[in-house]
Amino acid sequence: RILDLKDPSLLVSQAYVAGEWVDADGGKTIAVTDPFDGALIAHVPDLGADAARRAIDKAHEVQKGWAKRTAKERSQILRRWYDLIVAHADDLALILTTEQGKPLAEAKAEVISNAAYIEWFAEEAKRIDGDVIPGANPSQRIVVLKQPVGVCAAITPWNFPNGMITRKVGPALAAGCTMVLKPAAQTPLSALALAVLAERAGIPKGAFSVITTDDAKPIGEEFCHNPKVAKITFTGSTNVGRWLMREAGDSIKRLSLELGGNAPFIVFDDADLDAAVEGAMLSKFRNAGQTCVCANRIYVQESVAPAFAEKLAAKARNLKLGRGTDAGVTMGPLIDARAVAKMEDHVADALAKGGRLLVGGKRSELGGTFFEPTVMTGITQEMKVTKEETFAPLAPIITFRDEADVIAMANDSEYGLASYFYARDMARVWRVAEALESGMVGVNTPALANEMAPFGGVKQSGLGREGSKYGIEGFLEIKYICLAGM
Ligand code: ADP
User: Fold this and answer.
1) pTM of the complete model
2) What are the positions of the active site (predicted)?
């Protein structure tokens, strides 16, 4: 597949290890393909743990120097990286869509809105303030410094191949840390394009490496056991997060985990129903339902449920499936056959237990990994669609009687990333927002993520926050200095 890029140098087939562009030892490569039709886009190196080790060694070697630069210098370099990403957003979006499948407009929005994390943390770099606290006795002062944790390792998923990287690397570099990244094997090209621009922006050689691999485990083990790695930041499935936490426990590494979700999306009878339908469409079908904050379970109060279901089904029917780069396309294919199988399994399970299809329910005529946007009613808490993260374009509607009823159902999950609800009564808004067990709550909106807000989960959805003034804390240690003898 030939991509029509304005800057063809952004499409690279080498990895970026310790400041050098490298091929794999022995020429082992990964074929990167377009999920639209399986066409080959490029080959990238399939690297092993030794490459990760080299990158970590170099990241360790340059970290102190990077941290010693003034905050303003680090900030200016990051700002340049941000400017370059924005300037090349069209090319980055095209690379993203081609390797991941999402519509081009969504890809561009991902690039721009997540580059904003680099912009934000470039600014925050200058505000890593300490503290002076009165001493325990008159001859002492307590001084608090914040220092970078050191070398960080990042592991990112395929659903936001660009944005999941900038929101991790931005704060890490701003804090004075260095970073070794392992992107998802399905979508390494976005990561490598970002590395090209990072190098161009003047990020020092070795401060940011990208290890491409088809065999994640040995790299994960290297990250978890290498004593030079201080922190691991991961976005992906809860199972892999659990494994990383266990492995990294040996050396008490710092961890940020952004894991799975099972977001409830609740519509109360006092809601603006059209706004709720609009929100559910975005929350459920953006990226073909492949986001960790996607509405997974849609709870609608009895009296408005039939109207809501009908409106949602009508809109879902209007989604236009196709190649992400084609004009007017609003939903791309699923990432792979495994994703399709999970969707089919959830639909079949719901049907077997009494669920009904309003629209969709089967693979699309487009073939490949396309699945029809699906809306189901008659859903209960006992079905897989409500218990597990579907990660696909399936909107299951569950009706509820009252507030207590729906809060109990919404909180009946080991996950706690995002939740959403639509209501207008102000007292109810406060009560429900406080009662939902999740790190983020969208009230009358499906759009939660932006660089100014703390993104993250509770329960088994993860640890730590990305974005906002809180997002840099995970890359900093607190040092207390006791100044005595005054
Ligand atoms: P998904 O189902 O979305 O692929 P994963 O959690 O499996 O979710 O993948 C997210 C990221 O974690 C990817 O970059 C993947 O390669 C990586 N990954 C998966 N298993 C491991 C592992 N054992 N060690 C390190 N990284 C892993």
Assistant:
1) 0.97
2) 258
